């Protein structure tokens, strides 16, 4: 499931960026839905909200670390919701990493193609959307106590810091 979601997110991001560069580069933005949505091709050398422009190589290294961490974590994964969550995060990270590695101005210093704009919001892309959705899902899963191995921490266990799970055959004595 993780691989399928990651591949879908990556494919959608890469294909959308190919189309955007081919159709919107060096052209005026396209306003849709009365200006609620604007399609505008931009390049971002930084992170979200164009923070850290000029540190592209650092963001490339961080993205590589995120990919490695997700792949290592996947070995212990036994939960479909967490597989979807990590798949979104992995696909999004890989989508922006592909830009950083392969796009101009130089290998491993490439600028990410962003193209979706809402009023009063920075321009973003489908990889960014996958990362945000994966992050929100991670928060929701953690808040519900769902663990990567598919077990669920009970409210009492989370409150007292123990590691008892609600799927345990019997309750440990205290």
TrEMBL record:
GO MF annotation list: aspartic-type endopeptidase activity
Name of the top EC class for this enzyme: hydrolase
Active site residues per record: 114, 128
UniProt pathway annotation: Protein modification; lipoprotein biosynthesis (signal peptide cleavage)
Catalytic activity: Release of signal peptides from bacterial membrane prolipoproteins. Hydrolyzes -Xaa-Yaa-Zaa-|-(S,diacylglyceryl)Cys-, in which Xaa is hydrophobic (preferably Leu), and Yaa (Ala or Ser) and Zaa (Gly or Ala) have small, neutral side chains
Cellular compartments per GO CC: plasma membrane
Cell location: Cell membrane
Family label: Belongs to the peptidase A8 family.
Function: This protein specifically catalyzes the removal of signal peptides from prolipoproteins.
Protein's name in the database: Lipoprotein signal peptidase
The organism's taxonomic lineage, starting at the top: Bacteria, Bacillati, Actinomycetota, Actinomycetes, Streptosporangiales
């Amino acid at each position: 499931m993780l691989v399928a979601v990651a591949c879908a997110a990556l494919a959608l991001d890469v294909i959308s960026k190919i189309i955007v560069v081919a159709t919107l580069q060096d052209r005026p933005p396209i306003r849709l839905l009365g200006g609620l949505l604007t399609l505008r091709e931009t390049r971002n050398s930084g992170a979200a909200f164009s923070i850290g422009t000029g540190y592209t190589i650092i963001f490339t290294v961080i993205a590589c670390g995120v990919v490695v961490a997700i792949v290592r974590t996947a070995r212990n994964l036994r939960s479909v919701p967490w597989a979807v969550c990590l798949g979104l995060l992995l696909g999004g990270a890989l989508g922006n990493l592909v830009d950083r590695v392969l796009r101009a101005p130089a290998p491993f210093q490439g600028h990410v193609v962003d193209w979706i704009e809402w009023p009063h919001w920075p321009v973003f892309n489908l990889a960014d959307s996958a990362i945000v959705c994966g992050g929100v899902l991670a928060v929701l899963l953690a808040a519900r106590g769902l663990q990567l191995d598919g077990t669920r921490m009970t409210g009492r266990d989370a409150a007292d810091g123990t590691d008892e799970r609600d799927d345990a055959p019997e309750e440990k004595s205290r």
